[in-house]
Specification:
By secondary structure, the chain is α/β, with parallel strands linked by helices. It is 25% helix and 30% strand. It is built from seven helices and 14 strands. The strands form three sheets. The protein has a six-stranded mixed sheet, covered by helices on one side. The chain has a six-stranded mixed sheet with strand order 7-8-9-10-13-14. A two-stranded antiparallel ribbon has the order 11-12. Helix 1 (35-45) runs parallel beside helix 3.
């Protein structure tokens, strides 16, 4: 498969471009900013983008949605519990001294357990609330990869000091949805370097021993 990371925005969000090499059908996950750079990478890959997915609704992950959707004709997917963030992205970014734009409304909603298909590839949605109410991880079982958004980082976890966040829910999701995956599964978080499920189970100081 095609799997490319483009680090975007002042907060260093990992935007992922995934595609089927046979059909050249693809998706973009979390185009938080720098839409023209993301689109240049898409063009270079030769992919036709079917969906734009947001792992959650925070402004640094959704700021490039509009431009990506307009340029590719893709459909936007996000969990229902995070839809309200989309129309507030610019306002919230301003509170942090940053700039972005609001996102269009989604075309469809992510649900726990649903399968998103692009080309010959299938991606399973794992609803892992805690960082946000609608936070989701995206599991590519055939490739041994999971995109964890801001739920699980290399040696870290997502912040839970925001309104609507829950540390208990975050840890429960990591324990029941992520740490049950094969230990060899590669973890691709929303910020920072990749890891593996096995490494995080043994070494992540926030969830070790759970």
């Amino acid at each position: 498969m095609i799997f490319e990371t483009v680090v975007v925005g002042q907060l260093g969000v990992n935007c992922f471009i995934l595609g089927c090499e046979e059909t050249k059908e693809g998706i973009v996950v979390d185009p938080g900013a720098d839409a023209e750079r993301v689109l240049a990478a898409v063009k270079k890959s030769g992919l036709a983008i079917k969906y734009v997915l947001n792992t959650h609704g925070h402004f640094d992950h959704v700021g490039g949605n509009r431009r990506l959707l307009e340029a590719t004709g893709a459909k936007l997917l996000i969990h229902e519990a995070d839809v309200y963030f989309l129309s507030r992205a610019a306002e919230v970014a301003t509170a942090y001294g940053l700039k972005t734009e609001n996102s269009p409304k989604p075309d469809a909603l992510l649900e726990d357990g649903m399968v998103v298909t692009f080309g010959s590839l299938q991606l399973q949605v794992l609803h892992t609330p805690g960082h946000t109410p609608g936070g989701c991880c995206l599991y590519l079982e055939s490739e041994g990869k999971v995109i964890t958004g801001d739920t699980l980082f290399a040696d870290g976890v997502g912040r839970t000091d925001f309104p609507g966040s829950s540390h208990e829910a975050l840890i429960e999701g990591i324990r029941n949805k992520l740490f049950t995956l094969p230990e060899s599964t590669l973890v691709y978080p929303g910020h920072g370097p990749s890891s593996t499920i096995g490494h995080e189970k043994s070494n992540n100081p926030y969830v070790r021993g759970i």
